[in-house]
Amino acid sequence: MRFIEVLANARVEREIEAFESTLELSVMAGRKTSCMDESLNLRKETIAALKNAGLSDADIREGGGQASQNVWSYSKSITHFIIVRNASMDLLLSAMAAVEHLFTAAPQPYFSRLKKHYTFHNTIPVYAVSASPDDAIRDAIRRSRTTAELIAGESGVRLGNLIAVRECMTKQTHDAYQRSGFDISDASDVIAEFCADEMEPAAITTYGNLPPATGKAVRRFLVRYSIEDPES
Known about the structure:
Blueprint: E1 3-30, H1 36-52, E2 60-69, E3 75-86, H2 89-104, E4 114-120, E5 124-129, H3 133-155, E6 158-168, E7 190-193, E8 214-228
Antiparallel strand pairs: 1-3, 1-4, 1-5, 1-8, 2-3, 4-7, 6-8
Helix pairs in contact: 1-2
């Protein structure tokens, strides 16, 4: 069977279904001091604080981690990444405040042998496709047929019937460092450390939610048509 296959893009509307942030927990210590146990305890306490703030198990996901020590360095570090996601920005910020209170409730001396800090990386919107899948397929067929008829005409054949439509799945990354988003701070990530007598737990204020934002998404389809010999 002879056919023409066209890759067509269909634009659809999308809405924000959740907000996501990557929480980075780090413990630094001297070369001769172990920081693995301290880092695991900090991770356990932080997860408990997130749950006490209202996040469920489904809102908290593993994000990996890393350990580093240079043979020439006098320090080493253990880092854990935790991904938090929720449909409510208010609840997500309350969870961030709970982590802040956890750190400020246990300040460490400046010359402590262990240094602990956390970073809430940029909060990003997670979009969901809100348009009907049928509308996207119709749009893809309409766009592809114009291109297919042009190809058929230039090839000296006649475009036949629609044979098949297959959606091309696009790979989505979950790495917060590779996706653009919006900051919940003025210019950069939210970073804090254990600092004695510098910060006091603040009362949680009400977060004023804005109307849901929408954006454009692109779905890709492979549309196949049969071709026939031109009529004599």
